[in-house]
Each structure stands twice: as structure tokens, then as C-alpha cells.
Amino acid sequence: MPITQDQLDTLKQLGTATIHEAQGQTGALDSGLRPVDPSLRLAGPALTVDCRPDDNLAIHYALTKAKPGDVLVVDAKGFMEAGPWGDLLTLASQKLGIVGLVMNGAVRDANAIIEMGFPTFSRGLSIKGTNKCQPGKVNVPIVIGGVHINPGDIIVGDRDGLVVVEQSRVEEVIRLSRNREDKEDGIRAGLEAGKSTVDLLGLAPTLEKFGMR
């Protein structure tokens, strides 16, 4: 069953931390991948790219396979001494309807990317350019940040980080995330009423076990 825009919008609103916890503390990419503009969020199916370090030929090829709504997820092997993505690829992607980028490596032209409002996550910035002469693969399983990502898996990103939701689990994860939000709303109400986190989270037995009462 195709993923709907309403589902993607819901995941984006729920946020990465809630989703990660709700799906059993799984799917979080490592914290080295950070947003260029922390104010932007993204959610969409992964168009995966396996490319060589210091070469972006496969990225250009991937754009010929992109569909509106895709998130480009590029494994550049964590290479930080070149920026295989910049303002021109950002513009080309926006014209194709790509909604964001996850780069396991560096990007450049950060100011332009921010001004263009394109959600971009990377390990950092590099002003150095890349070659366009090495082969790569598109729409294949990749591993970034210790997480397996299959083509079509849903990528959710915000200020806190990135999380992957398996395509087949989207509706389940939304339900679990909403349940978690309801539980946290109850905790907030308890805090407002003057209760302690120890009482609300049932931590007294654990504290007693370690002699912390």
C-alpha cells in the first residue's frame, strides 16, 4: 500500500526522537549527521545512492531516476575532504520535486542551501569539489550511521537527527508514536500537578535497589 502524504506529514510532525523510541529505539542514524539548517524537517522515501568518495557521478545519475517526494540518501563513505553536493544539485533536485538530502559525507554552498530552503543533512562542510568519473549504484541497500537503509524506506529528519522507518511499518510506527505522545502528555500533567519524575516513571524500586532512597 503506497505511503500517503498525510502519513509523511504525520511522521514529520511526530519528530525523530519520538519515532525512534516508539519503534523500540531502532532506526536512528548516528549523531554525526546534522542538519545544515536545523529549522527544517524532512520526511520521504529513500532514493539511495552508493557512490565513491570524492566523486559525484552517481548522484547526477540518481537524479535521472528520482520521483517527486523522494529523499536522496547518499553514501559517500563519510569522506570529508570534498563536497559532492552544492547549490546547483540543490536547484536541480528542487526542480525534480526531491524533498531533501542525507549525505554520508560533506556538502558545500551551505548559505545557498539554507536560502533555498532545502532540508540537508551531512557530516559537515567542505569547499573542495569532486570528480565525475567513477561508477556507483542507485536504489540499492546501503548502510549509513550503522543503520541499513533500503530503497523506499522512510527517512525522517529534524533538528534532533535522522531516523529510518521501514516502509511496511509506517502505520504501525505512527500508532506507537501517538501512544507514546499520549503517555508523555500524562507525565507532563503529573509534573504540572507537582508530582516527581521518580513517582511518575515508577523509578522508586530501582533507586531502592541501588541504595539511592
TrEMBL record:
PANTHER family: 4-HYDROXY-4-METHYL-2-OXOGLUTARATE ALDOLASE 3-RELATED (PTHR33254), BLR3842 PROTEIN (PTHR33254:SF16). Mg(2+) binds at residue 109. GO terms for biological process: benzene-containing compound metabolic process; monocarboxylic acid catabolic process; phenol-containing compound catabolic process. Substrate binds at residues 86-89, 108. GO terms for molecular function: 4-hydroxy-4-methyl-2-oxoglutarate aldolase activity; metal ion binding. Keywords: Lyase, Magnesium, Metal-binding. SUPFAM superfamilies: RraA-like. Belongs to the LigK/PcmE family. InterPro entries: RraA/RraA-like (IPR005493), RraA/RraA-like_sf (IPR036704). This is 4-hydroxy-4-methyl-2-oxoglutarate aldolase. Its EC number is 4.1.3.17. The keyword Lyase applies. It comes from Pseudomonas aylmerensis.
